[in-house]
Design a protein that fits this description.
alpha+beta, Arc Repressor Mutant, subunit A, Beta-Lactamase, Enolase-like, domain 1, 3 domains, five-stranded antiparallel beta sheet, 13 helices, 48% helix, HrcA, repressor, transcription regulation, WH_DNA-bd_sf, transcription
């Protein structure tokens, strides 16, 4: 059980180290108005905090830095959210004042702006619409060899998928395929689309279209959706600006990690609604032991959810990042709900006209 004085000294030490990235000494803390104690008293308390595992002594300085245990205690018990200044608030809200009409563009711009505001790396996992059902298929030929499959979901979201059209297929063949897809697959949840495509459409396509197997195989590959395709990054190289990551090898390991989509998506496993903080070794991957990850969730509706992650050093400004994530999560959820309602209404109107 920490005393009130120890709690104060721990909080001031973490706050100071977050701002300076330099080990914190007792004389340094004694000059703060919040700590009306002598350097000797503070030094003794810091020694006790080190013995209890909350602080660590560096090899290059007489000062101390927070340990992983110290950061965890700070986040759980001592942290208060920061207040944003007007400039930051305006910058964050700017993307939502543009009335962006495409979900992907909104997500991409959100990833960029949150990384710019924090100077850390951001990853946004786009909305998961897999439980929503297909409302309509369209296929638009782009040239003799390429077409785009357009899948409109019942929540208004649109998936565009490029695929190769094998030689010899006509516009009439494409039209037949679209009719069969709409007849057999409309109403199928996206998560089951691949399986139902195999079970219910291949035989019918082969019956009505010559060499349908080639066209079917290309289309089937195009509509397979992986979690990695929902990842959007911001500020991948921001970590270079952090003193802890001037080591090129350490930075290279980090870049390699997030470039591999499977590792990046693992950050979002077992995420619960709200804010979550993982510090150092609490992250699954060994390459992330020098990092902290703060995640937040957002949603467009009950079945469409996504997540935001900010990756920074363990010396991350937790209060500021959590404030920004709370605001971004709220605003992003609101705007995605607007897009969903708007697109859904437009889709129903188009269906009524046809």
């Amino acid at each position: 059980m920490l005393t009130n004085r120890q709690l104060l000294i721990l909080q001031l030490t973490v706050d100071d180290y977050i701002q300076s990235a330099q080990p914190v000494g007792s004389r340094q803390l004694s000059k703060k108005p919040e700590a009306p104690f002598s350097p000797a008293t503070i030094r003794n308390e810091m020694a006790d905090l080190e013995e209890m595992g909350f602080l660590e002594k560096t090899h290059t300085s007489s000062g101390r830095i927070p340990s992983e245990q110290g950061y965890r205690f700070y986040v759980d018990h001592l942290l208060t959210e920061s207040k944003l200044n007007r400039e930051d608030s305006q910058q964050l809200s700017s993307i939502f004042q543009q009335k962006i009409m495409e979900t992907e563009e909104l997500i991409r711009k959100s990833a960029t702006i949150i990384s710019d505001l924090t100077n850390y790396t951001s990853i946004l996992l786009g909305p998961d619409s897999s439980m929503h059902a297909v409302r309509r298929f369209s296929i638009v030929p782009l040239d003799q060899n390429t077409a785009v499959a357009i899948i409109v979901m019942d929540n208004g979201q649109v998936e565009n998928r490029l695929f190769n059209v094998p030689k010899g297929f006509s516009a009439s063949d494409i039209e037949k395929m679209v009719n069969i897809l709409n007849e057999r697959l409309v109403g199928t949840p996206l998560v089951h689309l691949h399986k139902k495509l195999i079970q219910e459409t291949r035989a019918i396509l082969e019956k009505h279209i010559d060499r349908a197997g080639e066209l079917y195989a290309s289309f089937k590959e195009a509509i397979a959706i992986t979690p990695e395709e929902r990842l959007y990054f911001g500020g991948k190289l921001n970590m270079i600006n952090q003193p802890e990551f001037h080591d090129i090898e350490k930075m290279k390991t980090f870049i390699d990690l997030i470039e591999k989509g499977t590792h990046a998506t693992s950050i979002f496993e077992n995420i619960h609604p709200g804010i979550a903080v993982k510090i150092g070794s609490e992250n699954k991957h060994n390459a992330m032991t020098d990092f902290s990850v703060i995640t937040a969730t957002y949603s467009a509706d009950e079945m469409t959810n996504g997540s935001i992650a900010i990756i920074g050093p363990k010396r991350m400004d937790y209060g500021r990042v959590i404030t920004l994530l709370n605001l971004l999560s709220h605003d992003l959820s609101r705007e995605l709900a607007r897009l969903t309602i708007g697109n859904g209404t437009a889709g129903r109107e188009n269906n009524d006209e046809t």
